[in-house]
Amino acid sequence: MSEEQGSLHFRANSVASIADESLRAALRNAADTFGTRRTLAFGSVPDLEALREKASAIRMEVLDNLPGYVDTFAANAARQGATVHRASDAQSACDIVGSILTGHGITMAAKGKSMVSEEIGLNHHLQRLGIEVVETDLGEYIIQLEGETPSHIIVPAIHKNRKQVGKLFSERLGVPYTEDPQVLTKTARKVMREKFLAAKAGISGANFAIADTGSLVLFTNEGNGRMVTSLPPLHVAVLSIEKILPKLTDLPTFIRLLPRSATGQAITSYVSLITGTRKAGEATGAKELHIVLVDNGRSSIVKGECREMLKCIRCGACMNVCPVYRTVGGHAYGWTYPGPMGMVLTTLLTGMENSYPLVDASTLCGACVDVCPVRIPLVELIVKLREERVRDGLSDRRERIGMRLFGAAAAQPALFGWGEKLSRLLWPVIKKVGGEKVAGRLPEPAARPFHRRMP
Amino acid sequence: MRVQLFGTCMIDSFYPEVGEATVQLLEHFGVEVVFPKGQTCCGQPAFNAGYREEARGAARHFLSVFTGDDPIVTPSGSCAAMVKHHYPELFRDDPRLAEKAARAAARVFEISQFLVGTLRAQERSFIGKGRITYHSSCHLTRMLGVREEPLLLIAALKGAEFVPMPDATRCCGFGGVFMAKLPEISCALAEEKADSVIATGADTVTGGDSACLMTIADALKRRGSTVKAKHLVQLLAEGL
Ligand code: SF4
Asked: DSSP secondary-structure letter at A346?
């Protein structure tokens, strides 16, 4: 997959992003705004730490018994009238969705925001089958018009400023140029309204799936989630299997945590619970509901050392505070998921050999760990993955030699002393070889090291 | 009271004056400073880069050099965090070393932690001058949980004015191997940090980790700024 290639070029990608001043300004602006709002929003939560602990425990409970919960959810959703499909990988997920839609003669579908459908490349697949897919989340719609991929999991078009959106709209939609966000939103709404009414199928993701009721939960701000899932007669929900919560009574914990972590809202404008198909006497709801549960590697991740990554509720808080993300933006990561959660998840999902430079994309500053609502030990996981890369022989050769030497020297004081002496002597050469951006930033080594000054 | 001083490899090679200031301060408070011979590095560079075996080698050596029960004091938040949090984990499966690692973890202190918690240095006054801002290093703050101590010590610098830095807890971009592997991002972060420092109007930026201060000093120089970067122990020692 060509997108996968992107994660192998993290450094080159990031250099390009850094050079793009307007991108950096947009990113910094947006990430800071969300970060600040998040901090403010949690001001009104009395026992945040207990809440995080609880959320983490609920998510762990699911991971500890994942196959069981998937079965329970599937059985309860089916009882409510849904048709449940299981997809082991991206291809089978795409095939399932494709055949449901073609089977119904669908030529155009309205789609709500869904990261897993980005992960599996669903839009491309459906387009190849001749099905037009219209993104209805404003951010997703913007990048769809531009032919791009999301650069943030909550704010897909975070990298764009309103001037760029204004220009895009005037070019693609033939409307007069404006940078007024309200006018732009209105324009998009008008276009989408027509699509909603015309679409015979809606495709959505889900923030959570509730095992004991078989319900899907969607958090949205634009109302498009509701339209997509209830206006068209056919609704296809595509979600990854780890999104399950055991009980409906677990949901309030996440209602308190997710919007606050994501956008700094106490709650999103809409929280939709979809339980099965439209029942007799009900005025809304899809007549036919298909739920596609995507595994795509989760079953094996959950057995491994980095299983805690699957606790993630995709709030995006970690990216907003990550110094690296806010400098390079989501596209530099080269795949669906960016930022701290992305570097871990991408590596787990696509395999070390397809993504190994990504595990360098952290200073291990831990800002992400501070904000993660479900307490994913991201720094620990990043170090674990770096260890795995070393074990797999995929670490940089020069780094490997350097570390072997360092390891030998650190265990032998005489050797360490010699190493120091040697580097002092060779400093002018090291400085040259290391270059402006590395050795050039280090000061001259001291003429007499500290250990020689001590009795 | 006696302590064992861990100088760290960074300070050993690049900032011996920070080590000397640490000794001066501790002795000023009547503490006997022992510098265990043969100390090298805590192993953090290898650990963070994923070289667990090399890190274990360094840690094993550290544990053989730092024996006894005296507190281990170091002027580096990230090295203290390495000993405190990663040593026990590195030797999880080795009962003999696990016990040693747990003991080392229990007696390791970052210098500001020791100055405030044990020596109550914040109750004395030091002669301070100028406008000082503080960069809150990631490992010191987040991993070791040392937040208040450096600020209390800065407050003890009578005559100096403290000016808080915007986003003081944002990473300076050093990150050990990160600096070498993604130098462009590292530089961008350091420059952003330098801008924050300059925006405060301070004449000195201080902190608890020489590596961060090094990165910041370099970015300041590139920005043509005259703001000095000094380890907190240097400011305190100068003000004795
Ligand atoms: S890792 Fe944590 S902070 Fe990041 S998106 Fe997932 S839940 Fe949110």
From this structure: H
